[in-house]
Write a structure and sequence with these properties.
It is a single chain. The protein is built from 13 helices and 8 strands. With 421 residues, the protein is of the alpha/beta class. It has one domain: TIM Barrel (Alpha-Beta Barrel). Strands 1-2-3-4-5-6-7-8 form an 8-stranded parallel beta barrel, surrounded by 4 helices. Helix 2 links the parallel strand 1 and strand 2. 54% of the residues are buried. Bound molecules: ligand 9MR.
């Protein structure tokens, strides 16, 4: 009953659904609730107090025999992974056997990291004037030591429990708020200039309908609310954010990032209208981040390719920023795969392959911002916290909980090597 109610709330909040006429599109798409912390995981087991059991994991799934050494070496663009860090219980920088194992896999296959949480607003600048960079600097140091790059996520996002206290407490006028927002973003961007290759400057400012997120009665029970729209008395905070990011960092690629941009015509159309307006007024923006929290059967590859192409037509980069593909659709309420069988693994492999293949087909080399998967091992996924319980299998990522590679990893590699999916 809990799962159904949660899905009902998420579904209604997110307005999930497809507006496409493409027969392959069935309603789907995520909504972002205020989940628990941490999008990393240990071996999927817990030591009884909710902390990951960092001991050796039992074999947990269908594995793939890799015929390559390094996934990132197969691509001409960043191949990334979202990670926990800082004080998160599953920080990839934690000591112990599991932390060592996770870093080994990350260093072998990926050349860009995104912090799932610790570079969001409240982690870097929660109380006005007090910037806390320690956790992010530790991740930056690791990235640089390993010769990787860092994608910053995110300079501005409405998700309630990660909105900083100074924004909640603000009670001044519009212009003062925009000045403070400029200071926040410019200061943070300048702090990481030279270390961060690209930023999600604004994350999720539009509803699936294409309207702006507005309303702040109480964001805790309204996942669609945006305190920024209210404090700025309109969408002007978006251009303020991009101008401030560029002022802070003259060279990082600046992205607008969102989910359900495929095939949701309303949302993508609104984002592209914003792009056209920014480009007409020389507001800096370099690319669009497609989060791609998708399903095995939604959205269609045709719509994925077409959506990428609309961004490419504007000369902007396309970056897949948060890719995950569960074997069961959390929004359909039906269970396609009772367990992680070879058939489920093969379907997931094919889907990962087709998505990357569409990316390569639609986006020219010069506009490829990269592909990032939202978590390392299946048990790390945010989806587990949000949408899957009662034993329904999600298995959305490239590695089993024991860090063995899944066929999905081979799917990405096959697409990168232009092999048939
Ligand atoms: O994976 C993140 C999870 O650990 C956080 O609790 C959650 C809420 O802030 O955010 C998750 O990541 C989100 C990302 O920041 C933006 N796109 C949607 C992702 C899933 O909610």
């Amino acid at each position: 009953m809990k799962t159904f109610l949660l899905l009902l709330v998420m579904f209604s909040l997110a307005g999930c659904g497809s507006s496409s006429s493409d027969p392959l599109d069935t309603p789907g798409g995520p909504s972002n609730g205020n989940a628990t912390n941490g999008n990393g995981a240990g071996n999927g087991n817990s030591n009884g107090n909710g902390e990951p059991d960092d001991g050796p994991a039992e074999p947990t799934g269908v594995t793939a025999e890799l015929d390559f050494d390094h996934l990132h070496a197969l691509a001409d663009f960043p191949v990334g992974i979202a990670v926990s860090a800082g004080g998160e219980s599953r920080s990839i920088l934690r000591s112990g056997e599991r932390g060592d194992q996770e870093r080994a896999v990350i260093e072998q296959h990926f050349n860009q990291l995104t912090a799932g949480n610790i570079m969001k607003m409240s982690y870097l600048h929660n109380q006005w004037g007090s910037y806390t960079y320690g956790e992010a600097n530790a991740l930056r140091d690791y990235v640089e030591a390993e010769g990787m790059t860092l994608h910053g996520h995110a300079l501005l996002w409405h998700s309630c429990y990660q909105v900083p206290q100074w924004v909640r407490d603000f009670d001044g006028d519009r212009d003062t708020f925009l000045d403070q927002l400029t200071t926040h973003i410019q200061t943070v961007a300048a702090e990481f200039a030279g270390s961060v290759e690209s930023w999600d400057v604004v994350n999720e400012a539009f509803l699936d309908s294409g309207e702006y997120r507005t309303g702040i009665e109480n964001c805790w029970n309204d996942g669609d609310a945006s305190i920024f729209y209210e404090r700025a008395e309109g969408p002007g905070y978006l251009e303020t954010a991009f101008l401030a990011a560029r002022a802070g960092d003259p060279s990082a690629d600046l992205y607008y990032n969102d989910f359900n941009l495929v095939p949701n015509d309303g949302k993508l159309a609104a984002v592209l209208d914003m792009v056209d307006d920014f480009q007409a007024r020389d507001i800096p923006i370099d690319g669009i981040g497609f989060q791609m929290h998708i399903q095995l059967g939604w959205p269609s590859i045709n719509n994925i390719r077409a959506s990428f192409e609309q961004v490419v037509e504007r000369g902007l980069k396309v970056k897949i920023t948060e890719l995950d593909i569960p074997i069961n659709n959390p929004f359909s309420g039906q269970v396609d795969y009772e367990s992680f069988t070879q058939a489920a693994a093969d379907a997931q492999r094919r889907r990962y392959c087709q998505v990357v293949e569409a990316y390569l087909e639609a986006v020219p080399e010069t506009l490829r911002g990269g592909v990032t998967v939202w978590g390392l091992a299946d048990g790390d996924s945010w989806l587990i916290d949000h949408f899957f319980d009662d034993g329904v299998e999600a298995r959305p990522l490239l590695f089993n909980d024991d860090l063995t590679p899944k066929p999905a990893l081979m799917g990405v590699a096959d697409a990168l090597r232009e092999r048939d999916c």
